[in-house]
Write a structure and sequence with these properties.
The complex is a heterodimer of chains A (172) and B (190).
Chain A: H1 26-40, E1 47-49, E2 59-63, E3 73-84, E4 87-93, E5 100-107, E6 109-115, E7 121-127, H2 128-141, H3 153-156, E8 157-159
Chain B: E1 7-16, H1 21-31, E2 35-44, E3 47-56, H2 59-74, E4 79-84, E5 102-112, H3 117-127, E6 131-141, E7 146-157, H4 162-176, E8 179-184
Antiparallel strand pairs in B: 1-3, 1-4, 2-3, 5-7, 5-8, 6-7
The chains are: A alpha+beta (172), B alpha+beta (190).
């Protein structure tokens, strides 16, 4: 497994909507393994989408326990949100936008269907941080970035200051 | 006290960022019975800037305030610029009708830094008679160099054709090799 380089804005691949995965082969499984390795490799992130490592395919990995127990890994290929609840504003950070935080409205609960790396379809009912993570990563697969989701420049677009601010769930 | 007898000042300050600047400024205002009508404060590249609109009840109170400010400046905390706000500069009251004269948009621009980015986009917006209401612009570390992030919130007159505005801004983005996004920020009035 390899730790991949994380691309930052304004790399053009971050703006390209990703096509669906059609073949579930060892190339895909290798990419997924490398993405998991990269996510766990001290990034401080709980999710990583394929375009962030230069691959324009609808794949992301996530583990909301990525920097504690690492026991909640989910691999999502061709994810589709089937249903979503009402919104809650969350403060998010992004590996491809390390200098900023953004307050973004996200659904608190979602049902998402996605394939794993072997092509088996799964359905997940997720809430709170996991639900937000899925929506953030699916945005990456659509070429959408945090700045495209804010509603007010004054209140929702925040530059990280000298002290490293953590992205936290907040502001119901 | 009638509103017309109030004296309003625009107070602009900038100084090296450190704890206590806001408190010192507000202490000076409060000790002179000043009332803050509006203010914005932010940190910019290690400097802390504050702009206040404050009303005072009398010239004596303003003198008291200015004396306090002179002391702050002598301490070297920050530089202060004070000017009176004339009645014809009074801000419009917030929109109280659902029938707005403009639409709110957010323009975000990002790409490798070069001179003239803000100028190019502000000039393009001025050509449409668009009023800029808020700007955040920063240099950040990007993939292969310094990236300039520019975000502009603006009031677009109703007679401006959205498609034409969007096309002009995107063309400018292509010319300067910048990522340009424009989207409506209008609130739904229910």
């Amino acid at each position: 497994m390899t730790v991949l380089k994380i691309l930052k804005y304004p790399h053009p691949i971050l703006r390209i909507p990703c096509p669906e995965v059609l073949v579930f082969d060892e190339v895909l499984q290798g990419l997924v393994a490398d993405m998991v390795e990269t996510m766990y490799h001290g990034t401080g992130a709980v999710g990583l989408a394929a375009p962030q490592v230069g691959q324009s395919v609808r794949v992301f990995v996530m583990d909301t326990n990525a920097y504690t127990t690492r026991d909640n890994l989910k691999i999502m290929v061709n994810p589709k949100i089937i249903s979503a609840s009402r919104n809650k504003t969350m403060r998010e950070g992004c590996l491809s936008f390390p200098d900023y935080l953004a307050n973004v409205k996200r659904s608190k609960r979602i049902t998402v269907e996605a394939f794993d790396a072997l092509g088996v379809l799964h359905s997940y009912e997720l809430k709170h941080l996991e639900a937000v993570c899925v929506q953030h990563e699916i945005d990456h697969l659509d070429g959408v970035l945090m700045m495209d989701r804010i509603e007010s420049l004054k209140t929702d677009w925040l530059r990280r200051q000298n002290t490293q601010e953590e992205a936290v769930d907040s502001q119901d | 006290m009638t509103p017309s007898s109030l004296i309003k000042l625009v107070i602009s300050t900038v100084g090296k960022d450190r704890p206590g600047l806001v408190a010192r400024m507000c202490e000076a205002i409060s000790n002179a019975n000043g009332n803050i009508d509006d203010s914005t404060m932010t940190r910019l590249g290690g400097q802390f800037s504050m702009i206040y609109i404050v009303h005072f009840e009398s010239p004596d109170h303003i003198e008291l305030f200015k004396t306090a400010i002179r002391q702050i400046e002598e301490e070297g905390l920050f530089h202060v610029d004070i000017r009176p706000l004339s009645p014809d500069e009074e801000p419009d009251l917030p929109e109280t009708t659902t029938r707005s004269k403009s639409r709110k948009y957010l323009l975000s621009v990002g790409g490798y830094d070069r001179t003239g980015i803000t100028y190019a986009f502000s000039k393009a917006l001025a050509a449409f008679d668009i009023n800029i209401t808020d700007v955040h612009a920063h240099r950040i570390n990007g993939e292969d160099g310094i990236v300039y992030m520019l975000a502009i919130e603006m009031d677009v007159p109703l007679n401006v054709d959205e498609a034409e505005m969007k096309a002009d801004l995107e063309t400018l983005g292509k010319e300067l090799n910048l990522d340009v996004r424009l989207r409506s920020m209008d609130a739904i009035i229910l």
